[in-house]
Amino acid sequence: MTRIKKTRKAGDSAPKHAPRTKKSERVVARKKQDSGNKAGSRQNPAGSVTAKGSKTAKDPRIGSKKPVALGAEVVTSQPKVAKVKLTDEQRLLQLEEDPRLNQLLDMLEEGRDLSAADQQWLEQQLAKIEALMQKLGIEDLDDADIVSDDTDDALLDKFDAGVAQLQQYQKE
After folding, report:
1. 43 DSSP assignment
2. What does the alpha-carbon distance between residue 59 and residue 40 come to, in Å, rounded to a whole number?
3. Which of 10, 37, 99, 125 is the most exposed place for a label (fewest CB within 10 A)?
4. Collapsed DSSP state (helix, strand, coil) of residue 30
5. Which residue windows does the record flag with biased composition (Basic and acidic residues) (predicted)?
6. Phi and psi at residue 99, in whole multiples of 5°?
């Protein structure tokens, strides 16, 4: 039996390929999209050349004519911030949340003695708080005169009302 060498040629039964066109006859689909910077862009930044190309842009860091103070007395002026008007409620809340005020009040509750300056500051702050509370119409619960009926009949009536509510709850 004779050996037949295998080839890559398809033969007559294989599908036919389209004929090759010349490179000059081919139509370019579209221009290749540019991505990234042009070559040499690291050495030639885009902003360094002016429109005419005769002068290069001046480096703003070179040649500053502004005088520099060499001594230790450098004074920087801080911009003035306009104070925002606070409402009375906000001022009262701000005064009540003052950490120094809370610390001094805690020291008084513990029975410690305060210095004269601290005592005076505390009295001023408490006076401010009291004035704001009066202005807002807030009454201090400690100073309010609470009228209560502590007679035996009034207490018995309250107890009876509580018992009636309890029995009604148990029925449901």
Report:
1. T
2. 20
3. 99
4. coil
5. 22-35
6. -65, -35
The answer to whether 102 and 120 have CB atoms below 8 angstroms apart is no
pLDDT in tens, 1-14: 788 888 877 777 77
Instruction: Identify the helix (H) or strand (E) that includes residue 19.
Output: none
pLDDT of 144? 46
- The more confidently predicted of residues 43 and 164 is 164
Rounded to whole angstroms, the Cα distance separating 16 from 9 reads 11
Identity at 40, one-letter amino acid code: G
Residues 105, 96: Cα–Cα separation, whole Å: 11
Q: Could you tell me the residue ranges of all domains in the chain?
A: 88-139
Question: What distance in Å separates the CA atoms of residue 64 and residue 166, rounded to the nearest whole number?
Answer: 88
- Whose CA is closest to 129, among 158, 101, 163? 101
How far apart are the C-alpha atoms of 128 and 122, rounded to whole Å? 10
